[in-house]
Design goal:
It contains five helices and nine strands. It is an alpha+beta fold. It has one domain. The longest helix has 45 residues, at 5-49. The protein has a five-stranded antiparallel β-sheet with strand order 1-4-5-6-7.
Length: 248
């Protein structure tokens, strides 16, 4: 059967329209599920940072939510370090960052962080961090004990570093080496960083962590990230308020 050009073009347009509608409906229908999964992944990363969830451990959504019952979400003003009203929190509100070693281009006006509670008091602070590695920006969480200097853990949930080299930031053994290290010296100057080769145990070498073998730029990026976020341009104001008053 011979079809006219008008029929062919009309039929093609109809098929395209139907397919577009199906994709749009699917996208809208899945959006809420995608948002739930995104939030769940963030909670998993927070739990991993403070070792409430072990590397490789499989937890259901219900189990993750149960563990999160003892974790409070707080919003702080990054410049002043004071708590802010969570109702006014806008994650898209950002401004140009001053020149910094972590190569961060923009900073949020407010940051959403987490506090693991015990007996009504914060036991652990979980702080979002990010900064440049070799090939990518690394996004993760740094967990500090309530003394604001003892490191509970570090985890990265998104990066594009080279597998087997900079990608070793995902190695559970390397992440475990952060436990018990000290972020600051006695004068509250940031000291934590990676060293070339092996660092000593936390009680003998509290300010150093093993460097990533063959990944000098990624190692430097992690150190720079610690310097920035624990310093005055990052969470310095908040951590100072917290340790002086037990809260911000």
């Amino acid at each position: 059967m011979q079809y006219s050009n008008k029929y062919i073009f009309g039929f093609t347009a109809l098929v395209c329209l139907v397919c577009s509608l199906m994709i749009s409906v699917s996208s809208v229908g899945l959006r809420s599920r995608q948002e739930r999964n995104k939030l769940l992944d963030r909670k998993k990363s927070v739990l991993q940072a403070c070792w409430l969830m072990q590397p490789g451990e499989k937890l259901s959504a219900a189990q993750i939510e149960e563990k999160f019952e003892h974790i409070e979400t707080k919003v702080i003003d990054l410049k002043t370090g004071a708590y802010a009203d969570s109702a006014d929190y806008d994650p898209e509100a950002k401004e140009a960052a001053p020149e910094n070693v972590a190569q961060i281009q923009e900073l949020p006006a407010q940051v959403e962080l987490y506090q693991v509670m015990k007996d009504g008091k914060p036991e652990t602070l979980v702080l979002p961090i990010y900064g440049k590695g070799l090939w990518s920006t690394l996004y993760g969480f740094l967990a500090l004990d309530a003394d604001t200097t003892t490191i509970r853990g570090l985890t990265y949930y998104e990066h594009g570093e080279t597998p087997g080299l900079g990608g070793e930031v995902d190695n559970p053994k390397w992440k475990a080496a952060w436990k018990g290290r000290k972020a600051y010296d006695e004068q509250w100057k940031v000291q934590i960083g990676l060293v070339k080769g092996k660092a000593g145990p936390p009680d003998q070498d509290p300010h150093h962590v093993d460097g990533l073998s063959g990944a000098t730029m990624t190692s430097r990026g992690v150190t720079n990230m610690m310097q920035f976020w624990l310093g005055d341009e990052g969470y310095g104001a908040f951590l100072k308020r917290f340790r002086e008053g037990g809260s911000a």
